Amino acid sequence: MMRRHARSFKERWDDEAKAYRELADKLVPCPERDALLEKARQAETASSMYRSLPSLQPPEVRQEKPRARLLRLVDKAL
Prior knowledge:
The longest helix is centred in the middle third of the chain and has 22 residues, at about 30-50. The chain is mostly helical. It has helices at about 10-25, 30-50, 65-75. It starts with 8 loop residues before the first helix and ends with a helix. It is about 65% helix and about 0% strand. The chain has one domain (about 10-75).
């Protein structure tokens, strides 16, 4: 069973990145701060992947390739 989220994948990762950056801004330069900034960068990367990987988008947003759609319609007609 698929779980439906109130917020999108991108929104959740954007919020997580923002939270990591806010925590890092409160610290003086140290290894813990560097680790938080790295986690923020990773969350931002995950968020940006949402646009480039159609498999991460909800089904209603995905764009079917024309050839795949044509083949599906032909199979359905047979």
